[in-house]
């Protein structure tokens, strides 16, 4: 691994363990897990060596660690949760003294985040695992009172992690204080055996994510020291006094962190899919555009450009919006550190809808990239199927998409009510006040005009939702029932909001930086931003016709401009995906390598199939031959 300046003699396992003899897709479930542990352990050691470098924070993987993993494992790294949630949960939710204690072994422990249960993932107040304070021994006793209270899903829990952060209902002196987080050792460090009082295992094969080693965990009178409750926000003192958090939702902070991070992750997954499918479309020649000319690169079909360029543009949109959201997150965390919770609801609303839209879009766009590669996209060796199953899991984990959209809708409805009462609103929803006060412009066929129009759609749909809820309440429903009755429209409001945010942030951030870029680069970036916005204006033409003053003539011009943009981007398409700068070792695709040797790589890969190791498979003699011979005349 040339890119990592870690001396080989510092590693306990040989670096040769990173190589595969047989491609992962040909291994059984168990072999696949063992195979990624072999490779993952070397990586874990490398990360630990790198974290000694002061540039990286101790206990955390270097920022490009996940990317290196992507090249070494086509499937998910079972150590992922250690970096993605276990360490962040401790650093966000534990006191400085607890952090020093829990993380003192650095990479000597492997952790995961155990929150979801068999019976509850979404509704956290419904979790059933209990942590009851025993005043006499100064310990918490953890129990799983029912089958549905078993932890179910945490990544790395089945066989990899020896520690976890567990969410459980806190009971002190007979009173329940709701879900809290606890630091729990689950396996012996030396033998790796589950500790007594625990029932631990893996949940079985899944649609993808199969090496993530998702597990189950049950507690039977399992004791941990009182100090193992993460006590940065709320505390339980030795005498059993419960000190409340300034805001009980701070316990959910680790999820907000990951939701924010996921935007950049989806940008990267899409960049990989776009690189594979655009490069392949430049190599692949099929059919004619003009009958008397040679077969064309399939990338020259305008409909192929329509299918693929939106992925390039969307990857940039997520990257830029992800940075913007990250800055918002950092600012809100800084404010919280100083005691102000004012912007927490706004951050929660933004992270919920942007997490959902980015994961959903990444899912269907990666699938579109796969379909755009025709039959060859269906091969595992294209890597597009793995990218799809990995990305699509994110639509559900870290907050189910509908549920998170409803959280954002809740914020929109509250903001609408505040607008009606004349209160001032944060910049991200101030357009609701402008709409309420009828301060909006006529349709303008420019990127800024489209962004304004998309915001009008959000305001119009939000108003419609508020009226719908009111209508149901006036017919006798309770507010919560009326909310449920209006949920189809509420989802629409939230979806429209995230689309408007993505378009606005993408356009204005590109506009802001373009003066600092070379003219050529600024032109291309603006084309991508305009393509993204125009694509969504055309997709949402129905809503624009209902809520803005757009005309059919405006829509015809937008369609024309969209096709112009496809033509403008076409000559740069391969350059644009090359500029994502993803090494072949990370792409892991026979279709998308930089040198364009698609067919040679496909054949080389096919020859690695274990079925090709012998000319006649033994099943022929055992099963097929007797049947064939019976029917032979
Ligand atoms: C759905 C909710 C948000 C509902 O929570 P609730 O307590 O029932 O709240 P409610 O009554 O609906 O609302 C009460 C209020 O709490 C607010 N709130 C809720 N969550 C947050 C937050 N994070 N920050 C700030 N505020 C938050 C809500 O907006 C409500 O505010 P409001 O009353 O309207 O002012 C919550 O339970 C939740 O977040 N569920 C999703 C669970 C989830 O994301 N699990 C992830 C497990 S880990 C994982 O999947 C890792 C995979 C990683 C991998 O493999 O890579
Ligand atoms: C690959 C993968 C990895 C995971 N990793 C982890 C992990 O490391 N740690 C961990 O703790 N968990 C993990 N999870 C669990 C994950 O976070 C939950 O599955 C997720 O939060 C969804 O919860 P659920 O399964 O309870 O879905 P449910 O809430 O049961 O969803 C089922 C349906 O009910 C609907 N629904 C539920 N509530 C409402 C509502 N209020 N209003 C309207 N509709 C509603 C949903 O929209 C959905 O259509 C993982 C899951 C997956 C798939």
Describe what you observe in this structure.
It is found in: Peroxisome. Belongs to the acyl-CoA oxidase family. With 633 residues, this protein is of the alpha+beta class. It has 2 domains: 5-252, Beta Barrel (Butyryl-CoA Dehydrogenase, subunit A, domain 2), CATH 2.40.110; 255-426 and 435-577, Up-down Bundle (Butyryl-CoA Dehydrogenase, subunit A, domain 3), CATH 1.20.140. The chain has helices spanning 29-51, 65-72, 80-93, 96-102, 253-283, 302-337, 344-371, 384-393, 401-420, 431-436, 447-474, 479-485, 487-514, 519-539, 541-547, 552-569, 573-578, 584-587, 598-606, 618-631; strands at residues 111-114, 130-134, 139-143, 151-152, 163-172, 175-185, 198-202, 215-219, 222-225, 235-236, 242-243. Strands 1, 2, 3, 5, 6 and 9 form a 6-stranded mixed β-sheet that branches. Helix 5 runs antiparallel to helix 6 and helix 5 runs parallel beside helix 7 (344-371). The termini are far apart. The model has no long low-confidence stretch (mean pLDDT 95).
Euclidean distance between termini CA atoms: 60 Å
Residue share in helices? 40-55%
Ligand identities: glutaryl-coenzyme A, flavin-adenine dinucleotide
Shape verdict: globular
Could you give the count of β-strands?
11
The number of helical elements comes to: 20
Low-confidence stretches: none
Overall domain count? 2
Radius of gyration: 27 Å
Global mean pLDDT? 95
Class from secondary-structure proportions: alpha+beta
Multimerization state: single chain
Per CATH, which architecture of the largest domain? Up-down Bundle
- What's the CATH class of the largest domain, please? Mainly Alpha
CATH topology of the largest domain: Butyryl-CoA Dehydrogenase, subunit A, domain 3
| CATH homologous superfamily title of the largest domain | Butyryl-CoA Dehydrogenase, subunit A, domain 3
Report the portion of residues in β strands. Answer: 5-15%
Mind summarizing the main beta sheet? 6 strands, mixed
